[in-house]
Amino acid sequence: MSIAQPGADAKSDVESLDSDLEYFLAPDMTPPRAAADPEDGVFADPLAGGDLAAFVCAVEAGTLRGAADALNLTQSAVTKRIQSLERRLGGRVLERGRLGARPTPLGGAIYAPAKRALGALGEVASSAAQQRRSAVMELSLIASLTIGELLLPGWLGRFRESRPDVRPRLIVINSQAVLAGLRAGGAEIGFFEGPGSLEGLRTLTVAQDEIVAVVAPGHRWAQRRSIRAAELPRERYLTREAASGTRAVVSRALAERGMTLEPAAEIASLQSLKRALAGGGFTLISNLAVREEHARGALVALPVADLDLRRQLLAIARRRPALSEPARSFWRWLERSVAGAPG
Fold first, then answer.
1. What average pLDDT does the chain have?
2. What DSSP element (H or E) covers 52?
3. What are residue 209's DSSP bridge partners?
4. In the CATH hierarchy, which fold is given to the domain comprising 13-133?
5. What is the pLDDT of residues 143-185, one digit of tens each?
6. Is the pTM of this model over 0.70?
7. DSSP labels, 240-284
8. Is 139-339 a domain of CATH 3.40.1550.10?
9. pLDDT digits (tens, 9 = 90+) for 273-292
């Protein structure tokens, strides 16, 4: 335990002797305050931890000098703390005899609860330190569905090989909510699949993507190598929710051709959307989202030949306030291992 305050408490043998006499030979104390009653709002003005520590150490050391040594204080400082405690309690807590400092009946009554109180204060400090350590090492992220489900888990696994002390906290949500959450301070780094205003944000391209038409193997397009935009309105269209970044990219590209598509169903989950294709129709989603199913023949991915559905997938962060150390470390890792990686 260290409750010392350097400077004015620098030790002096003369001062120590004087303060010893000051405590034990002092005339009547300042008129005491009434003893604290828990029902009278003691928690609004609790006893000082430093005063309790001086008293407990004096009891355990048997002398004021021993208490001063234990607390790295001068003997005068220990005396003042004990006197402060006595004024609060309304009586002496120590008496000095030939064998040193011993607790009075009042001191004996408060010693055990004072010891417990100091232990509780230590737990408060320990809990605060533990929270600071965990907060410093937390990496708060927010990602749109395509990146959050398909890319980011693998990146985080690789990142934590070099930083196992960092604990990621990831929220996966649609793209517009990513922007709102990042600007509101809900996360330090976001992953965004556009479109939207990125003014004032740092950006880093972490992947290139293309949105493709996807159908079940039994669909009449399944044997094709590609389709054309004019064919899309003739089929049942299954799509992501309105705030989806993928859907926004598709809608913007179609609008440039003077086209719109009326959804037959809106499904927020990628996995549910892909399973729904068994009932017919098509969807327009990231090529990344269907790569495995296409490879094993469970679904068929078709580029829309005359529609530019390419896009960049971005990491984004606010410029102010500065990123925490774990967030800076992860951003640098993305620059080096993802954005700067070949292919």
1. 86
2. helix 49-61
3. 311
4. Arc Repressor Mutant, subunit A (1.10.10)
5. 999 999 999 999 999 999 999 989 999 999 988 899 999 999 9
6. no
7. --TT-HHHHHHHHHHHHTT-----SEE-S-HHHHHHHGGGS-EEE
8. no
9. 999 999 999 999 999 999 99
Q: Considering Cα of 303, then 309, then 310, then 311, what sign does the dihedral take?
A: negative
What are the residue boundaries of the structural domains of the chain, listed by start?
Answer: 13-133, 139-339
Half-sphere exposure of 266 (CA within 13 A, CB side): 9
Alpha helices in 62-187 (DSSP H): 64-71, 75-89, 105-136, 145-150, 152-162, 175-183
Per-residue tokens: 44 = 């609004």
Length of the chain: 343
Torsion of CA 146, 279, 283, 231, to 10 degrees: 170
CA 13 to chain centre: 50
Please tell me what DSSP assigns to residue 228: -
Amino acid at 254: L
- What are the pLDDT digits (tens) for 107-142? 999 999 999 999 999 999 888 877 766 655 899 999
- What is the rounded distance in angstroms from the CA atom of residue 24 to the CA atom of residue 68? 16
SS3 13: helix
Q: Which residues contact 10 (CB under 8 A, 6 or more apart)?
A: 74
Q: Which two tokens stand for residue 217?
A: 């193997």
SS3 111: helix
